[in-house]
Amino acid sequence: MRASRKYSNKKTTVLVNPAPVIPMLVAQGFQEYPQIEAILSELESLNDKVHLLEATKLATEAGDAMAMNVVMLGALCGLHLLPFTREHFLDAIVGKVPGKYRELNLNQRAFEEGYERGRSQTVAGCREGGHD
Question: What's the mean per-residue pLDDT of the chain?
Answer without folding.
Answer: 87
